[in-house]
Amino acid sequence: MIKTALVWFKTDLRVEDNETLVKAISQSQEIIPVYCFDDSHFETTSFGFQKTGPFRAQFLLESLEDLDRNLRRLGSGLLLIKGKPEIEIPKIVQEYKIQKVFAKREVAYEEKQTEKLVQNELFKLRCELETCSTSTLYHAEDLPFSIKDIPDVFTNFRKKTEQDAIVRNPFQKPIRINSPKLPLLQWPTLKELGLKKTTIDARAAIHFKGGETEAFNRLQHYFYDTKCLSNYKETRNGMVGSDYSSKFSAWLAMGCISPRLIYSEVKKYEKEFGANDSTYWLIFELLWRDFFRFMFKKHQTKFFLYAGIKNEKANSQSVQEKLLSQWINGKTPSDFINANMIELKRTGFMSNRGRQNVASYFCNELNMDWRIGAAYFEQQLIDYDVCSNWGNWAYLAGVGNDPRGHRYFNIEKQAQEYDKYKVFRTLWLSNLKSEK
Prior knowledge:
Blueprint: E1 2-9, H1 19-27, E2 28-38, H2 54-73, E3 79-83, H3 85-95, E4 100-104, H4 109-124, E5 128-132, H5 154-164, H6 212-225, H7 232-235, H8 249-253, H9 259-273, H10 277-299, H11 321-329, H12 335-347, H13 352-365, H14 370-380, H15 386-397, H16 411-418, H17 423-429
Parallel strand pairs: 1-2, 1-4, 2-3, 4-5
Helix pairs in contact: 3-4, 9-10, 10-15, 12-13, 12-17, 13-15, 14-15
Family: Belongs to the DNA photolyase class-1 family.
Function: May have a photoreceptor function.
Organism: Flavobacterium amnicola
């Protein structure tokens, strides 16, 4: 038993089903929960977009406030630091004489690099870094294949995993956390993070609010208050309103709720209200999320390369500023693409159906470097998740995990099928004429 441990929160901003937190408590007399506003997360990328836009930054701040409240109820609290984690975390380690740091295990390249830098600095202080895998439905150790042997085709991965692996039970929330007295928080403003506050458009499909409390409220609403889960498969391709899909993505991306906890709630729901294709389909979508995360573990930097995980790339590597601006601002010749892009610009959200269409349009009609589109999504999306975003964009660009290669969407046909009566387009294009 060590005296003091540090729990480094990242995209696991919750107290329920948080193995990192549970392990730290079990191995130490007291813990110090820390969140670092990493400077690199608020930089401009090589593609010219912010890594974190104002919509997601606001959601992050709300999630941290909720985490702090939940920790304080258990006798602890959150310590906020800002800067480079490899500089700031060792300072806290020295100040509080910390012997071990616990953190969520990363899989994507930049996050792995930061983890390694922190580990190297902690080693100099004779402080160990222990990481836990907390982001997936299935634990990597329980998969029926090694990471290097995971099938690159989702269907093959899914069938074998469903057949041969089990989902672990969620970890219980701690009853009490022992922490030294922590200073009251000084919350940074969006301005201090280098961002302008942006008001979300009133037409937004859902008004996301960050935090574990809100994640549970959403689950209660979608499962039990409305029983929308029982119709999920039929409605999931909708585009207007809050309940055509679960909308769990933002809370999952920030780690305000875990996929395992959602899975356990689905199983409870099925016992009470019955299982059907829809209840299964939500789990199916969580498996897609796992798949991309394990793909990043397997292929590492390749998902950020122009050729992706393939050896050749067919379309152009160019950027045409005028076409890019038209796509971002919803000024293309396609009203369906425009409506989706305006929704993303004004709200930080877009439906799954919309995302596939605008990505296909970007890659196939505009014929531009797909990574520019992915980088814009990284800036805009409230529910940005590095593996899902870049994995899906590579998939649509024909350089990812799509066994059929280059996937082309007939935009007009899609618009007719999914927005037959133009309800979605009317909603988002209604005041376009009055704009400059």
